[in-house]
Amino acid sequence: MGFGIKLNHRKLLDGMLDICGVPPEKFRTTCSSIDKLDKQPFEQIKKEMVEEKGLSADEIGTFVKERGQPLELLSKLKQQGSKFLGHNGSVDALNDLEILFKALKVSKCIDKVVFDLSLARGLDYYTGVIFEAVFKGDAQVSELWNAKVKAEYFVNKRVIKHIDHARESRISWMVIVGEREMNEGIVILKDIEAAKEDKIPRSSLVEELKRRGKGRGFGEESCSHTLEAEAEVEALDFFSLPSPIVASLSSSKRVIKHIDRARESRIPWMVIVGEREMNEGIVILKDIEAAKEDKIPRSSLVEELKRRLNP
């Protein structure tokens, strides 16, 4: 018995319903109907949407039947003439999913994922990727884990310790959400370096982080490249190396703290990937004990480590 993961994006779901003419006040109830498609045939769901909820279900039916290999379906949805391209929220979702799917591909786990437009969640705290893991039996697919991705709300009142940890780890921003913020639909975005904080609408948090990040050398494109590089390096066959070798991956420009931690933990090698390395198809392999580093083609990293460990 194996497993699979169905995946969708809340912004893409909202865009689909908007394109189909579903009024915003009926988004939630429509999602509850779509969510039954893995248990009931579409004709039965269509009857519910038309007769009980007063919706036009034909166009919705066309969309929710779309499912398949992530990058292939993504390419189809981004083709010229796609209705999604005329909807800003849907375009944002497709761009986010492209980054995710590329990372899954280089991590060699994309074969477990199905991009499924019928995966629907209507509650307000679903703002990004939605996924659901299922067992695959011989006769049926039974739900294993309904893992709805949502914001990881930070409700601990004692935040000082967490702020100190963020400062020590050179984390630029911290998102804090308490009961009041949940009720008001906002988050507190704390700038660790400047010791300032602002209240941000929850729906605009990602865009606000992108905007602020550009001023500190981050940005959507560099974040995308970094994610792909990290996924590719982490997917390499480190398990074939002699024990107890550990590789420490860092894409941060401030690597001194990571090097100190590797030295304290007696980690012999450190793999560093930045935007330049990503563009050149290499990694920096650092010998922690000798304090030396070399540029290595990314594809030959594991073999190079084997050679050095068995001279």
TrEMBL record:
Enzyme Commission code(s) on record: 6.1.1.21
Annotated ranges, domain Anticodon-binding: 142-211, 251-307
Enzyme class: ligase
Gene Ontology CC: one annotated term: mitochondrion
Ligand binding (L-histidine): 121, 125-126
The keyword Secreted belongs to this UniProt entry's keyword annotation: no
Signal peptide, first to last residue: none
Reaction(s) this enzyme catalyzes, per UniProt: tRNA(His) + L-histidine + ATP = L-histidyl-tRNA(His) + AMP + diphosphate + H(+)
Domain Class II Histidinyl-tRNA synthetase (HisRS)-like catalytic core: 5-138
Entry keywords, A to Z: ATP-binding, Ligase, Nucleotide-binding, Protein biosynthesis
BP-aspect Gene Ontology terms: histidyl-tRNA aminoacylation; mitochondrial translation
Protein's UniProt name: histidine--tRNA ligase
Organism whose genome encodes this protein: Quercus suber (Cork oak)
